[in-house]
Every structure is written in C-alpha cells, then in structure tokens.
Amino acid sequence: MWPLWRRFCTGMARKTQNAPAQVVAMRPRAGSGEEFYSWLAGVHLSPILGLILPLAHLAAPGFLWWRWQGRYPLLARQAKEVVNFQLAWTLYLLAATLLLGIGVGYVLLLVVPVLMALLACFGAWRGWQGQLFFYPLTLRLWR
User: Fold this and answer.
1) pTM to 2 decimal places
2) CB 80 within 8 A of CB 139
3) Are 128 and 41 in contact (CB under 8 A)?
C-alpha cells in the first residue's frame, strides 16, 4: 500500500515540476508572493464550505476564479481545476446514491466525502508551497 501511495504522490510532483513555459511565465508579481500563496491554498480549501452550505463547494472556487483571473492567471487555472474536481466528485456522489439499493452505495457515501476533504487539504498544502496540484480522477468538464 505504501509504495503505491508514494508513486501516487511522486507522480503528481513530477507533473508539476516539469511545468510548461506558460505556467512559468505566470508567477506572482514581486512583493505579492505571500498573498498569492495564501489565496492558492484558500482556493483548494474553499470546497470544504460545501459541508456547511449547499452548493458552496462549487460557488466558492468559481467566485475566486472570477475575482482573481485578471491579477493571478495561475490562481484562476487552479480554481478551474478545483471546480472540475468538485463537479466530477459530485457526480461520483450521485452515482453512489444510485447504488444504495445494492448496498455498495453506503460505503461509497462514507468514503467519497472523506477523500474529497483529504484531497482538498493536500491541494491546499501543495498550493501553500507554491506548487500546482492536479486532482486525481477528475473529469475536465470546464476548460
């Protein structure tokens, strides 16, 4: 189990270390690094609001994308990644509710929200370090 998790984490790190030239050109302006990294971590943590308010897991990253798209294009790109992640995992939760009749849905309804929260925290941690994070099992519905 542990080597599989290590391969999973290093695969994501490898994907972000070899960032394309367009991403390297979108670094934050001088003097605004702390603000940028805190907003980048916040955009990954914003879906946790969905546990309190309905549909906030989609509205919060969408609002942050709209708010910061002109100043921080990299932040807007990560906000789109978070929205795609939330849309895909919302579809997975809907599929889990359809599987309630079989009995598998009960397990999935417990596992999927926990994985969503863990991946959001991991994405926030990577964002706070200034690295890109691409969520696994995500459907790229909004490009």
Assistant:
1) 0.71
2) no
3) yes
Query: Among residues 25, 16, 17, 82, which one has the least CA distance to residue 49?
Result: 82
Q: Looking at residue 27, what DSSP letter applies?
A: P
Return the closest-CA partner of residue 19 out of 128, 125, 131: 131
Residue 79 is encoded by which pair of tokens?
């906000």
Q: At what angle do helices 104-128 and 73-98 cross, to 10 degrees?
A: 170
End-to-end CA distance of the chain: 33
Overall size of the chain counted in residues: 143
pLDDT tens digits, 52-83: 888 888 888 888 888 878 888 888 888 889 99
Q: How many Cα atoms are found within 13 Å in the side-chain-facing hemisphere of 43?
A: 34
* Mean pLDDT on 72-95: 88
> Shortest CA distance to 74 belongs to which of 114, 23, 115?
23
90's CB contacts (< 8 A; 6+ apart) are 57, 58
